[in-house]
Design a protein that fits this description.
It is a single chain. Helices cover about 10% and strands about 45% of the residues. The protein is mainly β. The strands form 2 sheets. Strands 1, 2, 3, 4 and 7 form a 5-stranded antiparallel sheet that branches. Strands 6-5-8 form a 3-stranded antiparallel sheet. Strand 3 and strand 4 form a beta hairpin.
């Protein structure tokens, strides 16, 4: 029941034109022991891992783990720079259902810089991490 409610909330909060299809039960469930590769940057509850490169983009694995004692909503932004003038930012947010204490949110960001080839050795920094705790006084995701 909670999974169906969460899926409905995500679908309702999605931007127009974006289709969200939940995974069948029993697939796509994070168990907490998944391997994302080598961590290259960490800020608070956000860890960025070594990206994968293709012809047009970099795919950057990111994992957010709520290390607090209350449900929290996250937003983060990363910046990727590299050879040939590659300079791009990407962001993501978990602001619909949030993360309960001890849970994680693995995601991937696709980073492109039109007119530039993704670098073989990109430099990735975490520009910002916002964490809003759910509880008394919570105003909803910004």
């Amino acid at each position: 029941m909670a999974r169906q409610k969460a899926a409905a909330e995500r679908k309702q909060a999605a931007p127009p034109g974006v289709t969200i299809t939940p995974s069948p039960a029993g697939t796509g469930i994070v168990k907490g022991n998944e391997k994302f590769g080598t961590p290259i940057a960490r800020q608070g509850d956000v860890t960025v891992y070594t990206p994968r490169r293709d012809k047009e983009a970099l795919t950057v694995p990111v994992k957010v783990v709520n290390s607090g004692k209350k449900r929290a909503f996250y937003r983060f932004r990363i910046r990727v720079t590299g050879a040939g003038g590659f300079d791009a930012t990407a962001s993501a947010s978990a602001d619909v259902v949030g993360l309960y204490p001890g849970t994680s949110w693995p995601t991937e960001l696709t980073v492109r810089d039109p007119g530039h080839i993704p670098p073989a050795n990109p430099h990735i920094t975490i520009v910002s991490v916002e964490r809003d705790v759910y509880g008394p006084g919570y105003q909803g995701a910004r």
